[in-house]
Amino acid sequence: MQDNQLLDRTIREIGRALRSGQTSAVALVEAAIDRHARFGDRFQAYKLWREDAARAEARAADAVFANGGDLGPLQGVPVSIKDIFGVRGTPTFAGSPAKLPEMWEREGPVVGALRRQLCIIPGKTHTVEFAFGAVGTNAHWGAVRNPWDAANHRACGGSSAGAGVSLVEGSALVAIGSDTGGSVRIPASVTGTVGLKVGYGRWSLDGIVPLSASFDTPGPLARTVEDVVVAFGTIDPAIGDVEALYRRLAGSDLASVRLARSDDYFWLECSPGVVEAVDAALAELARAGARVARVEFPEAALANETNGRGAMLAVEGLAAMERNYPEKRATLDPDVGRRFETAQSVSAIQYFNSLLEIRGLAASAAGRLREAGILVTPTCAITPPTLAEVAAPNDYVKRNLLMSRNTRAANLLGLCAITLPVGLDRAGMPVGLQLVANHGEEERLLAAALACERALGTARQRLGTAPLCRA
Length: 471
Description:
It is a single chain. The chain is α/β, with parallel strands linked by helices and 471 residues long. The chain has 17 helices and eleven strands. It is globular and about 60 Å long. The mean pLDDT is 96.
């Protein structure tokens, strides 16, 4: 099998090829570089492309293999990193027009866990400025193009804007992003990939440019749930044996999965084809043995209302900016700047009362999910907009809110969540199914997602190839 074709296999299959000598990390990286050479100018997924560094990292991984070393399943595997994470020797811009101080190049525990396995970092992917936006545009560096629309330049979701596209491009097999209101799950959903939001506090935020100290979470994207499990097991400090984790989670079947569908809020104002694709997938899962029940989940709407009154993400983001790089306020992307401005009219009492209300709603939501099982919703309610559809400020605000409406609740309520691709909407854009579980239940969530993927098929099997990636 050619190395270019090997890039389309799962990470566990690629790992077996690397360890058997069927291929090498150098060959794999050259194939990833070739993919980027073919598609990079069109998609613009990367802010910084590290071709020479990636080759050097691949040679180091191969040298360890040659000496009988095996540091983990991501050894020799290309992993893109969102440009809010510190990567040694590589500038961090966080979507701003000029690089941040050198302290933001320091690698934290998430990147450190990947480094210890000698993964390859081909580049840092574009982000909405300071990770504050769900559409995925950036006035300073342009908008990453969604590969699923050959006729129009559609947004690819934010704020981890380039993450999902780096996977579709084939230059990375895992993409590391962050999720404060959906910034892993939204770009995963609208690019036909898988994205995991871990519960707040499970993974360290050190070495990551902050938006919200109360709600930021790092998270991986990959092309299959199986690959996300590998990435999760690699990064998570509580997991020792990644393969044992996968085998344990893969042992669950759909008969053990309880899915709960709410009838309101998450399903309102959806673009044509979104609800239909998710409901069709749920019907397939039910026929395959999953139990699908109805549930009320009022905490989601109440949490979003509370956040709006307290402008919690804007307050915490503006505070982080004033503390770390106040000069950046003068050059903010206008769409991002207007969102931060909402923090100026919020009093300390409003913010604090909103935080207390959110904590109460989180406790209520946790109790509800203990009874109901795993909540299921459309991940992103609307078709990702074209650039023309978000050119006017009011249009941007409307679509930004709708793109993050279904994902934001999991952050505010302290839950973990994953999205997997289940279909195409009427515009031919990917639709994601979101699974939401209680805090600390990532393994249960991943087991359910694996069972769903086995029944529904992977993105490639279910959706085909993105139009702009076809030969």
